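Q: Here's a chain of 226 amino acids. Please give me its 3D structure as tokens.
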Amino acid sequence: MNIAIILAAGNSKRMRGVDKIFYQIRGKPLIFYTISVFEKHPKIRKIILVVKKRVVKKFSDLIRKYRFKKISAIIEGGKERQYSAFNGLKAAENLGAKPKDLILFHNGANPLILKEEVNEAIKAAKKYKAALVGQFARDTIKEVGKNNFVVKTLNRKKIFLAQTPQIIECQLAKKAFEKASAKNFYGTDDVSLVERLGKRVKIVQASTKNIKVTYPEDLRFIESQL
């Protein structure tokens, strides 16, 4: 069983007051498009939404309005993304996730992920137990030190920009999140917790359109693609 955890409990800190999750595009909130990818995907059995407590009812109304069938739980997120993801993982276990099942962690603000990319990431995760989608860096990457002086130029052929979904076998995800929690380690994405255990993580190349909405100008790009 493959379970998608859609993380939508962020604060939109860099959106200048815009609530990106509920931003209207063609008469529907952005989150509608993200959920729809997994709702329609034949390899996804269940969906868990991780949201802020104050919008649980709003999400419940949205589910009824658009008749989503796969959403099995709406749960409250944590203070940080990692804690929200961990809450989602615990909910997946409560829904019957087995050790070998795959858990897909996906940002609610990534609505342009393609069905084919999800397929390839699932295929990779089945083989390697952990996988994610991302894009090769297109620009030259500089590492900087004190006062923003360049330390060195990195080889962009070895640099990948991580996106979601990030897919981890359930028992491995549980171990990774529990170890991180016990050591108060905070990673900037889900698979970094797996890397920390010394496990391999496979990257699947995704379209450059698969971006996380972070700034207001990103919404204009999303609007042009939907």
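Q: Can you summarize the key feature?
A: Helices lie at 30-40, 56-66, 81-94, 115-128, 170-182, 191-195, 216-225.
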